[in-house]
Design brief:
By secondary structure, the chain is mainly beta. It has four helices and 30 strands. The protein has a six-stranded mixed sheet, with no helix packed on it. Strands 11-19-18-13-16 form a five-stranded mixed sheet, with no helix packed on it. Strands 22-30-29-24-27 form a five-stranded mixed sheet. Helix 1 crosses helix 3. The longest helix has 16 residues. Bound molecules: copper (II) ion.
């Protein structure tokens, strides 16, 4: 009866919402624009290298390390295959959709041409089940990025993979590199992400007393939690590189070697705290841009954020822990440079009880700064919403009902990000990198509860771009807005 009642509420909510976010995003009735032209083929410039890949989105079974789940992934692994190129290269990636439903692929953080951005209804038609789509774009900036669908809550399945753009001028002052992908995992356990969304959306005001499965408090962590309420979803597993802690991914090295970590939070509803037992990390980049190196014991990563760090390895076996902010459990991988038993998967490491870096406190390198300039226009990005009923909005209305932000090419644009909720929202912009007041360049930034942040961007990449919360449940429940260049 509970299920029927919730489903009833869910449908009722949709009816009230009219052309609201869910309808718009799932490409159902009342959907956004369709019938986009096939993008013009991109011809490589003289001497430009072309990096080709093929990705197949499909239903598959994954072994998370003793736990097998039925899910959707790119090929037969999660994370999906590493895509790697050098800044300035052209990427040509064919996506074959063997899922039972629409999909797209978004290349998160890349300042690419608009037609390749992968947002259905804004830059392309969705890729229908059984069909293919060719993404062609130049990757102008080096950095650590990732790719994932921009349809529904597909990101919370196994549909994500790392995208690394190498810097041709990188000094390469390290011996090893390790791509570390963090994820919160529910799919194929007892619920799919679509079930989770339906449960969240089905809640009415009457349901607030019984939030089964929803994590409403989440202030159990030690110290002084900076981000307010934890996420909305309780996950049975937390993964590093697709593995549960009882069967972890392992990096093997030698004592004294320097390792470059490229850390990606591909989670859908979880801020992680990351630390390597017995080591300090030197944070060197965030979201692709260099920062003044900062030695830390631990750092936070919001959904969609990336950090690069270097570390010099000690002798032994060291757990790399990603603890979900305000939630139970943890993810673990290992660095092994000597003999020794694997640590207890529930090991509590000291680094997580010390100071934890908030990425917004990093300082940019001089070369990463945006030139100083007064904004030509200021755009309000007002975040609101609540759990019951589960509706999230920007500028007073969910995506599909809110007015796009309109900007002019060539302008310096200030976005006033104002969070009027009790949750932290990782705000992400497509196709651009903005500058925080400190000058720090990022494309995804955590906006704390009841706080605001003004970020500036240079309007140098014309098109229609999504700006949204990277909590995928918030995004799908409306917390998105289009940023459009006037033509
Ligand atoms: Cu959010």
């Amino acid at each position: 009866m509970q299920e029927i009642s919730r489903r009833g509420l869910f449908l009722g909510g949709l009816a009230v919402a009219g052309t609201g976010a869910l309808a718009a995003c799932s490409n159902g009735p009342g959907t956004a624009q369709t019938n986009f032209a096939t993008p013009s083929r991109l011809r490589p410039l003289a001497g430009q290298r072309v990096v080709q890949h093929q990705l197949t989105a499909k239903a598959t079974s994954l072994d998370l390390g003793g736990t097998t789940v039925d899910t959707w992934a790119f090929g037969d692994t999660a994370p999906g295959p590493l895509i790697r190129a050098t800044a300035g290269d052209m990427l040509r990636i064919q996506v074959d959709n063997q899922l039972p439903t629409d999909t797209t692929v978004h290349w998160h953080g890349i300042a690419l041409r608009n037609v390749a951005d992968g947002v259905p209804g804004l830059t392309q038609d969705p890729i229908a089940a059984g069909s293919s789509y060719l993404y062609e774009f130049t990757a102008p900036d080096p950095g650590t990025y990732f790719y994932h669908p921009h349809v529904g809550v597909q990101l919370d399945r196994g549909l994500y993979g790392p995208l690394i753009i190498d810097d041709p001028h990188e000094p390469g002052d390290y011996d090893l590199e390790w791509v570390v992908v963090l994820d919160d995992w529910v799919d194929g356990t007892s619920r799919t992400p679509d079930d989770v969304l339906a449960d969240l959306t089905g809640m009415s005001g009457d349901d607030t007393g019984s939030m089964g499965g929803m994590d409403m408090g989440g202030m159990s962590m030690g110290g002084d939690p900076p981000f307010g309420d934890a996420g909305d979803v309780t996950y049975p597993h937390y993964l590093i590189n697709g593995r549960v802690p009882t069967s972890p991914d392992v990096l093997r090295g030698k004592p004294g070697q320097r390792v470059r970590l490229r850390i990606i939070n591909a989670g859908s509803d979880t801020i992680f705290t990351l630390a390597l037992s017995g080591h300090r990390l030197t944070v060197t980049h965030t979201d692709g841009f260099a920062v003044q190196p900062r030695d830390v014991g631990a750092l936070y990563l919001g959904m969609g954020e990336r950090y690069d760090a270097t570390v010099t390895l000690g002798d032994g076996v060291f757990p790399l822990i990603a603890a979900p902010y305000g939630k139970e459990g943890q993810a673990m991988a290992l660095i092994r440079t000597g003999s020794g038993a694997a640590p207890d998967p529930a090991i509590q490491i000291a680094e997580l009880t010390g100071p934890i870096l908030q990425g917004a406190d990093l300082q940019p390198t001089q070369a990463s700064r945006l030139s100083t300039r007064e904004p030509d226009s200021t755009q309000m990005v007002h975040l609101s919403g609540q759990m019951a009923p589960y509706r999230w909005a920007i500028n007073g209305a969910p995506y599909g009902e809110n007015d796009p932000l309109l900007i002019n090419e060539g302008d310096r644009v200030r976005l006033e990000l104002m969070n009027m909720t009790q949750m932290t929202h990782p705000m992400h912009i497509h196709g651009h990198t903005f500058a925080l007041p400190s000058g720090l360049r990022k494309d995804t930034v955590l906006i704390k509860p009841m706080s605001s942040l003004a970020v500036d961007l240079q309007a140098d990449n014309p098109g229609n771009w999504m700006t949204h919360c990277h909590n995928i449940y918030h995004a799908e429940a409306g917390m998105m807005i289009a940023l459009k260049y006037r033509t």
